[in-house]
């Protein structure tokens, strides 16, 4: 419970800080309320265990509402708060809505473990996917109001086809099997079912303890209630769709609920004290706050963000620092010369970036004219070339340099050649895009003047467009070289040569005092290239 109180206090503290800064508090009430609705429906709160770890399910509060109906107070309180905010009583709405959420979520958190029965909601995820497909197409109607009706019809047809495709034997369910029945509601089980599971567990305990004894593990004791279960429930119950819900075993949705409830409560209280802290665009700002919050919370969870890992890993960091300093520049007795090797490899890295950038610039220049809308607008054939070139650049730009390097290392072997080609291929797409945008933004006056004299397309490009865009081309190329040098450092980690390969080798072998020489060299060279690149680009543009 301490963690939940801490999350609530964090939300309250943020609201107080915003109030001290004289910012609008109504937007925080609205943003927290909208985010709470998303968290209630979509973010996991507790944990429900089965027999095996793969049977574990992390239910949302909406899924748990049939088991604990008081949870429905959360959306009701939030909706009431949003209505009050709309009608000019955001202070009361935030205070009452935040308090309602805290009461409902806190009441569920202190409940004991209980047995529940799963009920998949079939068709929900399919409907959601169909809605995303239809909505994506329908967005085009805003930019083309004259074609709004046909676009909406196409959107509805596409959404319907997507929905039914998931139900065909060879449709979406065959490729995304977890999407079918993904969302599950939890329903309570009668006390006799829970007692039957306790009896079944105790009857199977002697056999289980015999196995544990052979494995050298401690014996388990008979249980009196489901809260005494350690780990999994019996296999038969799990296969029949039962799970053991443990309300206090929280997931990231619990942080969202208590933090946002504290934020809403705090913002409401500050508004009650100073009702003037609101602005006309609060609803738009509130939607943005809710969007950011609902994107960040699952992102932090998916990336396993945990500062405690730094505390656990601190001894290694200290050990690394002790072994890495002072740097070993040379060991004549052992005939080891790290500085000499670093200078050689850093030169290779610079040359990789240089050659890769040069090749990319050579091929990007003609391609960029084919990808420029103002140069290829003459005939239908040229328009087709424009769309094909843009498609080529967009597709290839979506493949990271590291992935290209991995493929090329497998194809041509270890060494800088794979790194050079990876840099050249990816930089071709980047420079092609930048060059084409520079061409499209060129002044039309000289172009129209030459065209009025009957000049050919080649002459128009040579005398009207190139003089305008060449300084930009050079500036973009220099900047791309700066980026490519940093990329080439990483490419060495996958065997594509350069200083990255040296650092990876020394790090893997524990020779930190040699590895740090390479790091220092990288810092120096990066700063030199940055300063030189900035100076050169300032002279060109």
UniProtKB/TrEMBL annotation:
Superkingdom assignment: Bacteria
Topology relative to the membrane: Multi-pass membrane protein
Pfam families in UniProt: BPD_transp_1
InterPro entries per the UniProt record, alphabetical: MetI-like, MetI-like_sf, PhnE/PtxC
Compartment list: Cell membrane
Domain ABC transmembrane type-1: 346-533
GO MF: ABC-type phosphonate transporter activity
Gene3D superfamilies xrefs: MetI-like (1.10.3720.10)
CC per GO annotation: plasma membrane
Sequence intervals crossing the membrane: 6-21, 28-46, 66-85, 92-111, 123-142, 149-167, 252-271, 283-300, 346-371, 392-425, 483-503, 515-536
Family: Belongs to the binding-protein-dependent transport system permease family.
Organism lineage: Bacteria, Thermotogati, Deinococcota, Deinococci, Thermales
Keywords: Cell membrane, Membrane, Transmembrane, Transmembrane helix, Transport
Protein name: Phosphonate ABC transporter, permease protein PhnE
């Amino acid at each position: 419970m301490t963690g939940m109180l801490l999350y609530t206090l964090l939300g309250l503290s943020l609201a107080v800080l915003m109030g001290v800064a004289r910012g609008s508090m109504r937007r925080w009430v609205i943003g927290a309320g909208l985010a709470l609705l998303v968290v209630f429906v979509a973010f996991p709160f507790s944990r429900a265990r089965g027999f095996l770890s793969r049977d574990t399910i992390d239910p949302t509060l909406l899924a748990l509402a049939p088991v604990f109906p008081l949870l429905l107070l959360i959306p009701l309180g939030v909706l009431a708060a949003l209505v009050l905010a709309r009608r000019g009583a955001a202070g009361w709405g935030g205070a009452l809505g935040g308090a309602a959420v805290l009461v409902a979520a806190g009441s569920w958190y202190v409940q004991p473990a209980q047995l529940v029965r799963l009920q998949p909601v079939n068709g929900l995820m399919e409907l959601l996917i169909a809605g995303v497909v239809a909505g994506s197409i329908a967005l085009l109607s805003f930019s083309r109001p004259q074609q709004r009706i046909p676009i909406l019809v196409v959107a509805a047809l596409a959404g319907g086809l997507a929905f039914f495709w998931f139900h065909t034997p060879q449709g979406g369910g065959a490729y995304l099997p977890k999407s079918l029945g993904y969302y599950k509601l939890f329903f309570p089980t009668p006390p006799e079912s829970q007692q039957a599971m306790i009896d079944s567990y105790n009857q199977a305990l002697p056999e289980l303890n015999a196995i544990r004894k052979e494995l050298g593990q401690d014996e388990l004791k008979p249980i009196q209630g489901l809260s005494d279960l350690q780990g999994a429930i019996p296999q038969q119950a799990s296969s029949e769709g039962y799970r053991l819900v443990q309300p206090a075993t929280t997931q990231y949705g619990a942080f969202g609920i208590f933090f946002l409830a504290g934020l809403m409560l705090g913002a409401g209280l500050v508004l009650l004290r100073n009702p003037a802290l609101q602005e006309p665009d609060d609803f738009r700002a509130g939607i943005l706050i809710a969007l950011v919050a609902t994107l960040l919370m699952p992102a932090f969870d998916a990336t396993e963000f945990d500062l405690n890992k730094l505390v656990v890993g601190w001894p290694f960091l200290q050990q690394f620092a002790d072994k890495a300093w002072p740097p070993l520049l040379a060991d004549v007795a052992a005939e080891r010369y790290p500085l000499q090797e670093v200078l050689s490899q850093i030169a290779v890295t610079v040359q990789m970036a240089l050659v890769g950038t040069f090749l990319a610039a050579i091929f990007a220049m003609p391609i960029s004219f084919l990808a420029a809308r103002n140069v290829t607008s003459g005939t239908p054939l040229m328009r087709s070339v424009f769309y094909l070139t843009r498609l080529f650049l967009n597709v290839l730009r979506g493949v990271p340099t590291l992935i290209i390097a991995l493929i090329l290392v497998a194809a041509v072997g270890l060494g800088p050649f794979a790194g050079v080609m990876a840099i050249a291929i990816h930089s071709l797409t980047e420079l092609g895009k930048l060059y084409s945008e520079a061409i499209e933004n060129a002044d039309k006056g000289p172009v129209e003047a030459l065209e009025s004299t009957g000049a050919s397309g080649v002459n128009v490009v040579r005398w009207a467009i190139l003089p305008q865009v060449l300084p930009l081309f050079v500036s973009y190329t220099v900047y791309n070289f700066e980026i490519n040098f940093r990329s080439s450092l990483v490419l060495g980690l996958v065997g594509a040569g350069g200083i990255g390969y040296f650092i990876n080798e020394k790090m893997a072998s524990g020779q930190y005092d040699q590895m740090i020489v390479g790091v220092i060299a990288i810092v120096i060279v990066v700063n030199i290239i940055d300063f030189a690149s900035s100076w050169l680009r300032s002279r060109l543009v």
